[in-house]
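Our consortium's second objective concerns turning raw sequence data into structural hypotheses that experimental partners can test. To show how far this objective has progressed, the report includes one record in full. It was chosen at random from the queue rather than selected for favorable results. The single chain below, 394 residues long, was entered without modification.
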Amino acid sequence: MRFKSLLLLLMLAATLPVSAQVELIEKVKDNQSEGAIEGFQWSPVVDLERLGVENQGASGTCWSYSSNSFLESEMIRMGKEPVDLAEMYTVRKVYEDKADRYVRLHGNLNFGQGGALPDVVDMYGKYGALPQSAYAGLNYGWDYNRHGEMEAILKGMLDAVIENKNKRLSPVWRQAYNSVLDTYLGEVPESFEYEGKTYTPESFAEEVVGIDAGDYVQITSWTHHPVYEPCNILVPDNWAWGISYNVEMEDMISIIDHALRKGYSISWAGDVSEKYFSWKNGVAYVPATDYYAMSEAERAEMFKGPKPELEITAEMRQAAYDDYTTTDDHGMHIVGLSTDQNGKEWYLVKNSWGEGNDYDGYLYLSKNYVRYKTLSFLLHKNGIPEGLQKKLGL
């Protein structure tokens, strides 16, 4: 009874946070032009196989959706029958690991719904995988993700553990914490049936998914780190202090282009909160004229066909990260390369906000947008050109 009372008090006392992803969708909703789709003519150059577009709902779990979608495409690339992987299983295991680190650091760690791209591969390597059919993560009775209440209760519990007056942690706080996860997301099955065979999460990862977690690396590009060496991206959602390989800005484009043409897709993280990112129209680019210097007529026409773009330099990219105009907003899955009617190449990207835009849940990102607004991206190391692999020591 005391445990139930504590949960009730935490629920009532907590200010339930609105997911940053939900706020983000609202923020970019007005970035659109009427009839924009008619202004573009797309010709596919590379179009890699993937499973269907999903919807992360009211949860800040884009990192899990993008990188699990990426792993599904990796299965296809490897000649396997793809599995719809359970994003919420990954989320569940991240919440467990994050709680342990949060408590060990006495609360001096970002705790929330966000995560980083490599979290999915890390959890897969440590805890295996589940198909969506075995773990939907919707134990609270809704048919879509909504994690604000759960997040508030989990954080409230951890803060109570850290601030307790006993001067010594109990041995059961993890059990209490995991009980909340069980209540909201459901208990993790020790074993489950899939296509007539019984698996554990570990055996499912090994026998069905068949991916080696050690084959995947994260790439980034900053001038405040030595080039071609490992570095740590200092953003709040990098709670596990994951390592990235730092390359030149143009190397990022070379790597992505090479990977796509060789059949390797990309899990991508970056800033999507700019006025020149349109979820509704499915287009993002960097206009040559600053948005705040545009006339109303120019703003209305922003996404109606190809427009001149600003040339991006490494110095501009770094400055935007340093002054917070480039922020760690969102994760998506780069699955192709297309040209517009002028022959300019754009990346085809699968999002996780459902199918309610001009391209049924997909977007086209210009290469200059990717140069400017990329935080990092994750891929199989063999998708990197051989010369860069050698420079990175892979």
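The partners drew two points from this record. The longest strand covers residues 330-339. The CA atoms of residues 86 and 130 lie 6 Å apart. Both points have been shared with the crystallography group to help prioritize constructs.
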